[in-house]
């Protein structure tokens, strides 16, 4: 076996979101989803299997994790070891160029990079589809970070059929996604807990499943036609309907904070003034704004004035997973 590998994976932002599992252990989603991989936010992870170790050693942003904090990563390594038919422990080093757990999908880039590095280091030779299925076991949204550009995660009917494929590469459409960092604190309600609560208690959940199917179809047509207004409208509506599942849960919960609402209002005002831009939000308060390059500067300067230049990051479509060694 090769023992060592290092990989980089980028985060993705869902335009039609994944919000619910029909099998938690296998992380099989209730609906298919479609995302855009982003160039600015990524995770680098190296994995070294070493026969002399008695435990996995995990370092995250240069900080050694204790056994409990590393559990999700060591559980994932067990899956890889199982597939590869080995029992060797590993040293894992991860550097995140993403504000962790603030709704910028660090688990997506994190588990995509870990899946790529761990599988290669363990001697497994996985194709894209197999890698995407493996990443899914770490975090659902990681399924989509194996590929670059626009990516669809097919919900499938079981483990073998639930994986992602590329709809269009990163250079297919010159778009920008402006991230507004309104709050970088880790979220209080994890996406897994949030999904579970929405699914089991929101009276609108069944409607959401039907809606996602329709949105996905419409979104693929908008991508095919380079129709920015349709793409933005579908993404914004889909995001708000996902958040409606949190507001309508029992007990209710909410990922917005006051600054998220301020960002949404600014996007609405910009649109009313004739600048086409749309927002989306994941399971955290940060807002991402979709815009085409011709209107980027006016949107960036408005957002910088409102939130401070340091809190605005301009991203573009990004690549799929890459091996760094
Ligand atoms: O991959 P998870 O379990 O962190 O779930 C991600 C859920 C959303 O980011 C809110 C939506 C999505 O499709 O990425």
TrEMBL record:
Keywords of the record: ATP-binding, Lipid biosynthesis, Lipid metabolism, Lyase, Nucleotide-binding
GO molecular function: ATP binding; diphosphomevalonate decarboxylase activity
Keyword check for Heme: no
Domain of life: Bacteria
Family matches, as Gene3D superfamilies: 3.30.230.10, GHMP kinase, C-terminal domain
Annotated EC: 4.1.1.33
Ranges for domain Diphosphomevalonate decarboxylase-like N-terminal: 9-164
Residues of the Mvd1 C-terminal domain: 178-311
UniProt record, GO biological process: isopentenyl diphosphate biosynthetic process, mevalonate pathway
Class in the EC hierarchy, top level: lyase
SUPFAM superfamilies: GHMP Kinase, C-terminal domain, Ribosomal protein S5 domain 2-like
InterPro entries referenced in this protein's UniProt entry, alphabetically: GHMP_kinase_C_sf, Mev_decarb, Mev_diP_decarb, MVD-like_N, Mvd1_C, Ribosomal_Su5_D2-typ_SF, Ribsml_uS5_D2-typ_fold_subgr
GO annotations of cellular component type: cytosol
Similarity annotation: Belongs to the diphosphomevalonate decarboxylase family.
Protein name per UniProt: diphosphomevalonate decarboxylase
Gene: mvaD
């Amino acid at each position: 076996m090769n023992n060592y590998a290092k990989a980089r994976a980028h985060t993705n932002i869902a335009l039609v979101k994944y919000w619910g599992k029909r099998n938690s252990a296998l992380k099989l989603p209730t609906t298919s989803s479609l995302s855009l991989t982003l160039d600015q936010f990524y995770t680098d992870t190296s994995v070294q299997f070493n026969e002399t170790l008695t435990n996995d050693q995990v370092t995250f942003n240069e900080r050694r994790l204790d056994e409990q904090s590393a559990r999700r990563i060591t559980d994932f390594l067990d899956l890889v070891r199982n597939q590869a038919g080995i029992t060797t422990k590993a040293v894992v080093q991860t550097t995140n160029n993403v504000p962790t757990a603030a709704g910028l999908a660090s688990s997506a880039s994190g588990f995509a990079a870990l899946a790529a590095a761990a599988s290669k280091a363990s001697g497994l030779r996985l194709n894209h589809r197999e890698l995407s299925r493996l990443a899914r076991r770490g975090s659902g949204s990681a399924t989509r970070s194996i590929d670059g550009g626009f990516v669809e995660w097919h919900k499938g009917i079981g483990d073998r059929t639930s994986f992602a494929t590329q709809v269009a590469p990163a250079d297919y459409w010159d778009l920008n996604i402006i991230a507004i960092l309104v709050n970088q604190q880790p979220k209080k309600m994890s996406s897994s807990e949030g999904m579970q609560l929405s699914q089991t208690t929101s009276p609108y959940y069944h409607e959401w499943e039907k809606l996602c199917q329709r949105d996905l179809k419409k979104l693929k047509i908008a991508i095919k036609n380079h129709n920015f207004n349709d793409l933005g409208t579908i993404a914004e509506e889909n995001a708000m309907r996902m958040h409606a599942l949190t507001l309508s849960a029992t007990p209710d919960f909410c990922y917005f904070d006051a600054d998220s609402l301020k960002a949404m209002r600014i996007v609405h005002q910009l649109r009313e003034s004739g600048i086409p831009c749309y927002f989306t939000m994941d399971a955290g308060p940060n807002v991402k704004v979709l815009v085409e390059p011709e209107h980027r500067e006016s949107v960036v300067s408005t957002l910088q004035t409102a939130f401070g230049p340091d809190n605005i990051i301009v991203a573009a479509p990004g690549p799929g997973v890459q091996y760094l060694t």
